[in-house]
Write a structure and sequence with these properties.
Blueprint (H helix, E strand, L loop, with lengths): L3 E4 L5 H12 L5 E3 L8 H11 L13 H5 L7 H10 L8 E4 L2 E4 L5 H6 L1
Parallel strand pairs: 1-2
Antiparallel strand pairs: 1-3, 3-4
Length: about 120
């Protein structure tokens, strides 16, 4: 199996649930605590490609205060990518990546589909 990576926030129940499902499947992923080690802009673009989109809205948390404060509702792609790179709390979680595929595991059971 290709390497499995999870962008993880241990305070998030969905993120913990995805991690548990991976463990149940016998998968020991690379755990990236993205709030502590934010992804680069290039990594964000790569994960969007793996998700099958180029739209950063696929991974942005629109309910966050930072989203409103930055006025991102009408922002273009480049502005959204910059905001995600600068403010990782805006990134939806968890994101699980296997090889060239990824899923925003909300609900966590989406991990099973990714595992096949």
């Amino acid at each position: 199996m290709d390497e499995v990576t999870i962008w993880h926030n241990p305070r998030c129940s969905k993120s913990r649930g995805a991690l548990e499902l991976l463990a149940e499947a016998g998968v020991a992923p690379t755990v990236v605590r993205y709030l502590d080690t934010p992804p680069t802009r290039a990594e964000l673009v790569d994960v969007l490609r793996k998700l099958g989109t180029d739209d950063p809205r696929a991974i942005i948390r629109t309910g966050e205060q930072a989203y409103r404060e930055r006025g991102l509702a009408g922002a273009d792609r480049e502005t959204l990518l910059d905001a995600l790179a600068e403010e990782p709390s805006l990134i939806e979680r968890p994101i699980v990546q296997i090889g060239d595929r990824a899923v925003v595991a909300r609900p966590p059971e989406l991990v099973r589909e990714l595992l096949g």
